[in-house]
């Protein structure tokens, strides 16, 4: 059986940071955890069209600071800041009237290289009945054109309305998922279509290409092997 590991949790304290930054013990931990989940759900529902990539929640005593990473900050703020003020009041009801809530907005300069936004964009296209292959290939091509080192995108479910669910994926460039030093950007979204839910996963490698230099005193023998030849398939055994 396969052992699935969350890509973000796997890289915590190496190349990823926590999405919630606070400390609690006992029952207080469960209370704050459910508050975080409700706040994230509230923000996501209110900002469906604002291209929200990440939400960071920080707590200190009786204050909560929420940082929203979005590609469309104008839609988050609203006209004369009305939308963000209304959203602040709604979040105060979740945390309690005595809690101070402050919302910061960080603009994403290149949404074409953000894995979460890529996955949500593909999900939106699938809900509009666009061909899944066309949507996936388009996302891969745009990411590579904007300078990504590699991208992998995977769709799973009743693709194209088929009776039997399956998974298809496309990859281009370098996407080393087992190298923790490489800051892989991961995103997940769901497309709610008429024939079921289709899950979209996306991995993006934005690291600039670095020369594979050998450490001092230890020669890199991998560079002296030469190009690999074509892989040879094994002949089936004749058990008869």
UniProtKB/TrEMBL annotation:
The reply on keyword Ribonucleoprotein is yes
Q: According to its UniProt record, what is one Pfam family this protein matches?
A: Ribosomal_S3_C
A single Gene Ontology CC term = cytosolic small ribosomal subunit
* Alphabetic keyword roster: Ribonucleoprotein, Ribosomal protein, RNA-binding, rRNA-binding
Domain KH type-2, by residue range, is 39-109
Its GO biological process terms? translation
Q: What ranges does the record list as Basic and acidic residues composition bias? A: 220-240
Location of region: Disordered:
211-240
Matches recorded under InterPro entries:
KH_dom, KH_dom-like_a/b, KH_dom_type_2, KH_sf_prok-type, Ribosomal_S3_C_sf, Ribosomal_uS3, Ribosomal_uS3_bac-typ, Ribosomal_uS3_C
Gene Ontology molecular function: mRNA binding; rRNA binding; structural constituent of ribosome
- Superkingdom field: Bacteria
* Described function: Binds the lower part of the 30S subunit head. Binds mRNA in the 70S ribosome, positioning it for translation.
- HAMAP family listed in its UniProt record: Ribosomal_uS3_B (MF_01309_B)
Report the sequence similarity comment from the record: Belongs to the universal ribosomal protein uS3 family.
| Assembly mode | Part of the 30S ribosomal subunit. Forms a tight complex with proteins S10 and S14.
Report what the protein is called. Answer: Small ribosomal subunit protein uS3
Q: Which gene encodes it?
A: rpsC
């Amino acid at each position: 059986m396969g052992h699935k590991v969350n890509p973000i949790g796997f890289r915590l304290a190496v190349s990823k940071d926590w999405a919630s930054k606070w400390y609690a013990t006992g029952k207080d931990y469960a209370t704050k955890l459910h508050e975080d989940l409700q706040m994230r759900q509230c923000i996501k529902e209110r900002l469906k069209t604002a291209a929200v990539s990440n939400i960071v929640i920080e707590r200190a005593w009786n204050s909560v600071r929420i940082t929203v990473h979005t590609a469309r900050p104008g839609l988050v703020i609203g006209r004369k800041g009305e939308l963000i003020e209304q959203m602040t009041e709604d979040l105060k009801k979740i945390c309690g009237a005595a809690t101070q809530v402050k919302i910061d907005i960080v603009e994403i300069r290149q949404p074409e290289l953000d894995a979460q936004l890529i996955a949500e964009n593909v999900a939106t296209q699938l809900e509009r009945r666009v061909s899944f292959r066309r949507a996936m290939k388009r996302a891969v091509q745009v990411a590579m054109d904007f300078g990504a080192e590699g991208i992998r995108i995977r769709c799973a479910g009743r693709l194209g309305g088929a009776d039997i669910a399956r998974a298809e994926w496309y990859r281009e460039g370098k996407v080393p998922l087992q190298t923790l030093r490489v800051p892989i950007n991961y995103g997940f979204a769901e497309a709610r279509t008429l024939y079921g839910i289709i899950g979209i996963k996306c991995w993006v490698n934005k690291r600039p290409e670095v020369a594979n230099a050998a450490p001092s005193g230890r020669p890199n023998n991998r560079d002296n092997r030469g190009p690999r030849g074509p892989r040879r398939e094994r002949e089936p055994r004749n058990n008869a």
